[in-house]
Amino acid sequence: MKPVLMGDVIALARALRAAPDAERASLISQVFADASEAAVFVKKARRTHPDLGNGSVMAASSRYPQVPEPWLQDREYCRCLRDIFDYLSER
To answer: Rounded to an integer, what distance in angstroms lies between the CA atom of residue 44 and that of residue 87?
Structure first.
């Protein structure tokens, strides 16, 4: 998987914000797994994965519905960001 940048976090948080609360934890895991799988594919095939992208979290997140980027006053969006940072800090 490519290194995770702030744009990746924002893209994933936008997808999480569009998902039901009960599905968010599994969506985080799925997106990171998809990004890792795509990165392996890219390394072997020397081209982007046709469905999962280039190995970035942003590309993997783009497969899911996303809300327009919310303001930081949106508590649910902030919870999505927190959940992603928690996931990253535990990896």
So the answer is: 27
